[in-house]
Amino acid sequence: MPDRACHRFLFIPAIEWFNHPMPDLPFTPLERRITFADTDAAGVAHFSRLAVIVEEAIHRLFQSRDIPVHDATTAWPIVSLHIDFAAPLRFGDTVHLHLNPEKIGTTSLTWRFEAIKPLNQSPAFSGTLTQCHLTPATGTPAPIPDQYRTLLAAESFQVSG
Fold this sequence. Notes:
The chain is an alpha+beta fold. It has helices spanning 14-18, 47-64, 146-153; strands spanning 30-33, 78-85, 94-104, 108-117, 122-132, 134-135, 140-141. It is elongated.
């Protein structure tokens, strides 16, 4: 039976989220510079581009562990996304994105993420993202294979920027 995680949302006020720092994460954060294409007319990173940055980081994590992002048997569509914004990011800013696999369900995977501005160690945004593991041919949820579970739970999980 598919996880119900695909149907629930987590809403935590930004001030409460940032008063509870994330635990030490078992892997290196992704460093990402905000490009001109990431910004809106006001020169601030657009919320939709921040979601793309989180997805890019997850794909890099998968690739670093030889977990396919998409192939004949595996797809990982995003089914839930919640972002709390704490400070603007502007063209040229650097951000460190920390990812933590918060819950590995039968067919879903929930990530918790936090983006930190390295210059002053202040939070920029944080949230959760849930993906469902699907069989692309049928579009139906499929159990996450045991070898992927092992790789996602590994202590030496690292991302290369």
